[in-house]
Amino acid sequence: MITARAAASFEPVGRSVASARSFVRDTLQGWGFGDIVDDAVVLTSELVTNAVVHAGTSADLLCLRSEDGVRIEVADRYPEREVPLQGFPVDMGNPDREGGRGLQLCAALAGHWGVDYTPTHKTVWFQLDLPERPVGTRAAGPALPAHLLPLADTRVRVAVVQIDRSGSITAWNEDAEELFGYTAEQVTGKPLTDLAAWPHTPGTGTGIADALQLSRWEGSYGVRGAHGRVIPVYASHLRVRDTDGEPSTVCLLVRDHERAVLQTPLRAPSTDSSGGSEGPSADPFEVFIGSPAPDDLDSLLQRTVERARDMLDGDSAFLLLATDDETELEVRASTGLPSARQRFARVPVEGGPGRYGSARMPAVHEDLAAVPGAVPLLNGTGMRSVVTVPLKVEGRLTGSLGVAAEAPGRYSNEEALRLQFAADRIALAVESARLGELERLRRGSLSFLVEASDLLAGTLDRDQTLALMAQMTVPTLATWCAVYTIADQSSEPDLSYVLHEDEELIDGIKSLLSKIAPPDPVPTPGARVWSAPAEIAHQAALRTSMRSLGLSGGPTRHVTTGIGPTLATASAVGGETVVLPLVARNRVIGMLTLGKPTDEHFRQEILELAEDLSRRAALALDNARLYSERTAISQSLQRSLLPPELPQIDGVEVEVIYRAAGEGNEVGGDFYDLFPISDGAYGFAIGDVCGTGPNAAAVTGLARHALRLLAREGLSGPSVLERLNSAILDEGERSRFLTLLYGEMRPQEDGSAELKVVCAGHPLPLRLRQDGTVEPAAEPQPLLGVLEDLELREETVTLDPGDVLLCVTDGVTERREGSRMLGDDGLAEVLTTCTGLTAGAVAARIMRAVERFASDAPSDDMAILAMRVPGLQQD
């Protein structure tokens, strides 16, 4: 049964693919189907690309919601382009090639998919099934001795927050005010998402909107307090409804280290063997882990370490998972240890310093003080005895489980056997959950990289590219990031952009990084650890703290005066910092630096995703650099083709307006010039070269400089243009047609001005008299660069006091709005309204009229040259 539908159509242009992705993402998020958003976005992107790019038609997108899942249909108007039907043995091609990946992805990701044909449409559809969402359960834990009970502050505060159907806060108790610093009046009516700092990793986890829709949810996240810092909390959400049937969510929150106040205790399995209630069919996994088992990896691992600690009566427990190549172990869960400090930390399995030598076999250490470093995770924690066992699947090391105690000599081989038995029961479930999380992460990464590539390809502005690089990594991949750029091989790295998820810390981090040496620009791919920011920040913050206490001393290493980071800045950069090179066209053009807050580490999958992003970002940044250089060269060349300044002519007002079309990335086109020839005589020109680019620019430069040179040799106007015509034809294949209006002007003693004009294929100059009449001031003659034997004639025009001569290029007269064109008549009509205006006012009015004639930006260069003989002044 279809319970909801959403439809949209997209034009056959490249940007429609991004619009379609956004439409599907917003639709599924609105329906509360965040679990399948990434798969749906990837499939939609491929199918819409097939329709609008490859088939070249518009795409109709339809989303259908049912009780079991979501069906998405993409239809195009190219039914003749046949698609292999599902089930037929058709070779869909190499997955690395450009086309044909949409059907491969449908087959890999969708539960069902197919193709429907009509005489006018072809529809490719796929269906994604919804995963089952378990509701919360209640259980009771065993009685514990007082010394094993979790620690809490003297005054435990439980914030009670109620959220309505729309996600807005409706209730906020006194403990919430004390914990977070906001009064009830400040937050009532605001969405919880404005305050919650929800942990997010692409492709994994549940969004806050999803969590508020579940009947019960427990877990950790952060709440941004009134002081601007994020407070880690542990929360329990319960979905309820009032007597009117209106649903809302009641959220109980405590400080994260007091999670035991809210955390649902586990129901211990029965140990009474006399009754035989378990029987031979009891599942050893459920006996250890409890039922129902958590459905996500993090919850499963956390429950595992807590049960292992309780089973061996330990003070702490930890679980590490092996990397794909089994060379390192990554901390994924712990209890009784500073988990925030150790999460995702990695230690070698066998070789090198800090190795984890006991990972592959069960091991018991009666006193870690006698074998320091045997279990690197426990260094500095006060734990003395420890038992560790491997997690193995089909003989392959997949992880390590350990339990530790503060007293020495607590464990023996008997405890190791018990723990190994439990590890064997859960190893397969942990590996299955890990592979599921990895698959979701890879799917989310694919969606993330698709959108990142789309954003980076959408701009050629260097500063905007830097901002996009930072905004895509924070907070999705890292807590803060910095981008260094390298102008050329001889230049030092320059700190170009800094971003932190808390805007108040950006200036402090920028100040800190600007005072220390940048990382070395090593071209080796992959992430490498950079320890300098954390070390310098900690030392400087320690000095600051000691000075505030009136103490002296501290670290002996010199810290540059003026760094002065606050404790907040030191905490922000105190975790793991990694550097990824930005390599484009076999050259290091910069470095992407990613950081975590105090004592946090990156997981390997995030570093791999960041490496993929850095390759795309480097190419986008280098493209922006090349575009900027090309634009600067073009603009410099364009400026060289125009006169630097116009001479002042006694008795004649002159005004020029020049507007280049486009973004300044092409040269050539229109040009103008006004220059002295001899005493009392001036040459003027306005021309238009056919086309744009280097060849047109060559003709433009040739024309402007040849006009000045030939005119100053005393040649007449026709002779000047005939010789210029020969020079253009001598350019051969590089030659271009040229329309040119050239003239010589001599101001007269009676206040008039005598002009001798040659109009070679150019729009005719217009003369405006004092009585408002407008007439052409020359006759058309052949353009330059076409005929070898060119015969031109010179025409004489006298401008009386008050008269105006207007010269324009065809970008003015050919200004269009649909099928309408301004034309010569339209220009003359505007000029009739300019009687009595100065030359500057005439040029400005003409330009305003041209710009207002059409709503679109001009598609051609425009040049306006206005010359006016002012009236005689009365005594």
From TrEMBL:
One Pfam family from the record: SpoIIE
Q: Does the keyword Hydrolase apply?
A: yes
SMART domains in the record: GAF (SM00065), PAS (SM00091), PP2C_SIG (SM00331)
Q: Where do the record's region annotations for Disordered lie?
A: 264-283
What SUPFAM superfamilies does this protein's entry cite? Answer: GAF domain-like (SSF55781), PP2C-like (SSF81606), PYP-like sensor domain (PAS domain) (SSF55785)
Write out the entry's keywords from A to Z: Hydrolase
Q: Where is the PAS domain?
A: 160-190
Q: Does the keyword ATP-binding apply?
A: no
> What's this protein's name?
PAS domain-containing protein
Species of origin: Streptomyces variabilis
